[in-house]
Amino acid sequence: MNSRNWSRSVVTTCLAVAIVCTYSMVGLAAQQKPSGELSVVGEVSVNGASAISGATVFSDSTITTAQNSSAVVSLGKLGRVEVMPNSSLKLSFTDNGVSGTLDSGKVRFSTSSGVTSSVMTKDGNAVADNAVPNVYVVDVECGNTVVATQSGRVELRAGNSVKQIAAGSQDTAGTAQPGTRCTRLTRSTHFGSLSGGALALLLLGIGGAIAAAIIAARDSNEFNFGGNPIVISPSR
To answer: What sign has the CA pseudo-torsion 90, 80, 165, 117?
Structure first.
């Protein structure tokens, strides 16, 4: 073999090795990149493309659900994220944390102990305590932000305010949009905020006041017609 053919063989071999190494590194990187498995009900899109159950979801994907539709992203040891109907969530995750930016609708995060998680909205940021498992809902359907903790501990950070939300309780940030279904329900259910006993006492008091007014009016009509009362003697 002359020197020219030998040089060509060396170059060809080096190129082949480089190509193999490149594809191996790309494949290894793809395998190591965190991902989630998607389950859908109804019409769901990921990054603007229609999605089906079993699809792979990568970090920084935007999941959008239509009316009467929902999606669940299973993240293995990290936990799972549920996207409710009429919602849009940009979901990001690493090997030890999950975060989301909620533009509309409602989501439920369920995360394991040791996993950091948070949901950002226009009003603030809901941050879960990673020392314990957490299940919490973040809702922006009414224009404000409502955070409800089902288990674990969550902070709602809005401006300079930090609200601790224990399991079984909820808190809000921002103001509900005027004229929405939520504000109408709030105005029409003021009595609903009273306990059963307080509401009964209130209604009883109102009823008693009305009854007293009726009796007073009746007595006034029977015994005093605006002039001096007439006294009728039993004897002539």
So the answer is: negative
